[in-house]
């Protein structure tokens, strides 16, 4: 058989489990299939939604939504407050399935992972057969569906996996990247938020293709150096590195942690402290001139069990907003608020000296090269003059 090198490009797969926690509950309890299922606590809980079934999403419920708000939108849903051990177990078993196909697997959250399939797919007769084999093995073992995107880089693979959920399979070869991207609304671009969309739409940029074809001088006038990053992404440029599971991201890291006076799972208290710790870490990074790509959340449960979860971002960061955003996602996805906590910590690793880094959410007014970095600079100046405890963010609701 002629070797298929995909024209020299790497073959990156992004696997995203569909409504992971809720789907596990529906698989365990068949009576829940077809019903709105919300995982994260009882309806009167002060916690937040970890995951909800697609039936619940039809009512507007989504992850990280306060449980009280979810109850208002969908009062007849089945609310489940269950220990996260079974979800972590299934996640590890799915990773084992991926490892049986590729040695290069990188878990980015409890329900998603990247895998490098370069050359491997040839053994299975092509990309579609290997992807369907993985999906079938997951379904046969756990009764769960997964959406898979395959592309020459991480960014396009992730967009592909989310473009046909649930139970989707989208393959975007190198010569079809622009065709895949350009017809989509501009806010489908990974990192373009609501404010960016409004600004782009006002000047006639409604699709990713419009953005790709816009003169760079115009984008720079609107977004500064971020304009270049937006156009690169619109043209499908992105990293193709999948870190091997046994590799450490970096020996250098910076972090802060705190032990509660009393064990607690009060969402407001935990999220407020998480924001504080993220701010402390971001301050240290800037003081030493570093940015990092990996965010690790560390928690100690009330039974003294120590657990860490990490995520690797597509870009380097040093702002409290981006650190908090990543750490909060780890907290919610792993259902750490389901039981009282004794300790919580935030760590940033995979460091390098800072330069012109970009936020993962390139939204006007919220990117680290404009408002966030401006705010950070002011905060740093105040703390340099008046001490580290001189000023803080009012609360996690700001983010």
Account of the protein in words:
The termini are far apart. Residues about 245-250, about 355-370, about 385-390 and about 395-399 have low confidence and may be disordered. Strands 5-6-1-7-8 form a five-stranded mixed β-sheet. Strands 9-12-10-11 form a four-stranded antiparallel β-sheet, covered by helices on one side. The longest helix is centred in the last third of the chain and has 22 residues, at about 265-290. It is globular, with a radius of gyration of 21 Å. Helix content is about 40%, strand content about 20%. The chain contains 14 helices and twelve strands. It is α+β, with helices and mostly antiparallel strands and about 400 residues long. β5 (about 105-110) and β6 form a beta hairpin. α10 packs across α11 (about 225-235) and α12 (about 265-290) packs across α13. The protein has three domains: about 1-175, Reverse transcriptase/Diguanylate cyclase domain (Alpha-Beta Plaits), CATH 3.30.70.270; about 185-235, 5' to 3' exonuclease, C-terminal subdomain (DNA polymerase, domain 1, Orthogonal Bundle), CATH 1.10.150.20; about 255-399, DNA polymerase, Y-family, little finger domain (Dna Ligase, domain 1), CATH 3.30.1490.100. It has helices at about 20-30, 55, 65-75, 85-100, 125-140, 155-160, 175-180, 195-200, 210-215, 215-225, 225-235, 265-290, 320-335, 370-385; strands at about 10-15, 35-40, 50, 80, 105-110, 110-115, 145-150, 170, 255-265, 290-300, 305-315, 340-355.
